[in-house]
Amino acid sequence: MAFEYDDQNIFAKILRGEIPNDTVYESAHALAFRDLYPQAPTHVLVIPKGPYVSMDHFCQEASEEELAGFMRAIGEVCRIEGVSEDGFRAISNAGENGVQEVPHLHVHILGGRPLGRMLAKAE
Ligand code: DGP
């Protein structure tokens, strides 16, 4: 599958500084900022700085440095937010079935309260 990246998506605009964000952590390869519509006391989005649509795209085409930098950023966010001990959930929605709203790879880090089961039972 060929991945097409839309550089007008909202997270691309955040990366270019065209839209403000509440930054939690930044490194050479990643930016982490608070979700505009938090669903838990901790709700941070971690995004790579490169133009990747989804986790699938990133895993196929990112360099080893980008891959490592992104994963390290997720760990840093867990440390900064203090969610490692009590637990957290990392979610990355992709495509239509995954109900991805913003077509730039992002991992939601959710924590600070019991989060319930991962998925509701299928209808
Ligand atoms: P997803 O469905 O996984 O694509 O989630 C996209 C998330 O992005 C959703 O939880 C709301 C958040 N979001 C959308 N627009 C903005 C924005 O402009 N700023 C921030 N901080 N978050 C946003």
UniProtKB/TrEMBL annotation:
Signal peptide (UniProt feature, chain positions): none
Active site: H106
SUPFAM superfamilies: HIT-like (SSF54197)
Domain HIT, residue spans: 10-120
MF (Gene Ontology): catalytic activity
Ranges spanned by the short sequence motif Histidine triad motif, renumbered to the chain: 104-108
InterPro entries on file: Histidine_triad_CS, Histidine_triad_HIT, HIT-like, HIT-like_sf
Pfam families, A to Z: HIT
PANTHER family: HISTIDINE TRIAD HIT PROTEIN
Record's protein name: Histidine triad (HIT) family protein
Organism the protein comes from: Litoreibacter ponti
